[in-house]
Design a protein that fits this description.
CATH topology: Spore Coat Polysaccharide Biosynthesis Protein SpsA, Chain A
Order of helices and strands: EEEHEEHEHEEEHHEHHH
CATH architecture: Alpha-Beta Complex
Number of domains: 1
Shape: globular
Largest sheet: 8 strands, mixed
Radius of gyration: 16 Å
Helix content: 25-40%
Number of strands: 10
Structural class: alpha/beta
CATH superfamily: Spore Coat Polysaccharide Biosynthesis Protein SpsA, Chain A
CATH class: Alpha Beta
């Protein structure tokens, strides 16, 4: 597929007592689950992180932010900056249940848009989205002028919003976009995985 799979793992995992990317679900880390899914779809995989030393032996190429410590917008920028393709599928490191058929569908719907962003319960999901290189000028402007609010950035672009009614075909929307971002969510994720 003519797109890169980008895993964003730059957060501080403040609601976990450890790095959520390595949270264990039935004997596998969340990150490993995502990598295995991405390997079936993308020929270029990368992890964007501010702690590269933690990720070097996992398979994907590891990059740090071009604009360090400036949050998710810096991660999106770095994914596009380092990608060999015009397009990336970006996913947070805490979303193990994403359906890759949905990811492929989102990529198919990118033509003519800057990005494809899901909307669930009226909330944008910019950390499980498709971004084209046409976003780069707006990203650089935001990063250099400290305009870092992700929803405002997405709303400023020519965005293809993808709503629950459209995504339901690929599975339960609440499951696919479930975040393992605290200990209660980790317990729930283990239950959802049947372990």
């Amino acid at each position: 597929m003519q797109a890169s799979g980008v895993i964003l793992s730059g957060g501080r995992s403040s609601r976990m007592t450890f790095n959520k990317a390595f949270a264990d679900i039935c004997g596998r880390s969340v990150l490993d689950i995502i990598i295995k899914k991405f390997e079936k779809v993308f020929d270029e995989l990368m992890i964007i992180t501010n702690e590269p030393e933690l990720y070097h032996d996992l398979g994907p190429v590891v990059y740090s932010d071009v604009y360090p410590h400036m949050g998710p917008m810096a991660g999106i920028h770095s994914g596009l900056y380092y990608s060999r393709y015009e397009t990336i599928f970006l996913l947070g490191c805490d979303m193990p249940f994403i359906n890759m058929e949905l990811a492929a569908y989102m990529l198919e719907n990118r033509v003519g848009y800057d990005c494809v962003v899901p909307v669930i319960n009226n909330k944008l999901q910019p950390l499980s989205a498709v971004y084209n290189s046409s976003c780069l000028p707006a990203l650089v402007d935001g990063l250099e002028n400290n305009k870092l609010k992700l929803t405002r950035f997405v709303e400023s672009l020519n965005t293809r919003y993808m709503y629950e009614t459209e995504m339901r075909y690929f599975g339960d929307v609440q499951t696919m976009f479930f975040n393992v971002n605290d200990l209660a969510a980790l317990k729930r994720a283990r239950e959802m995985s049947g372990g």
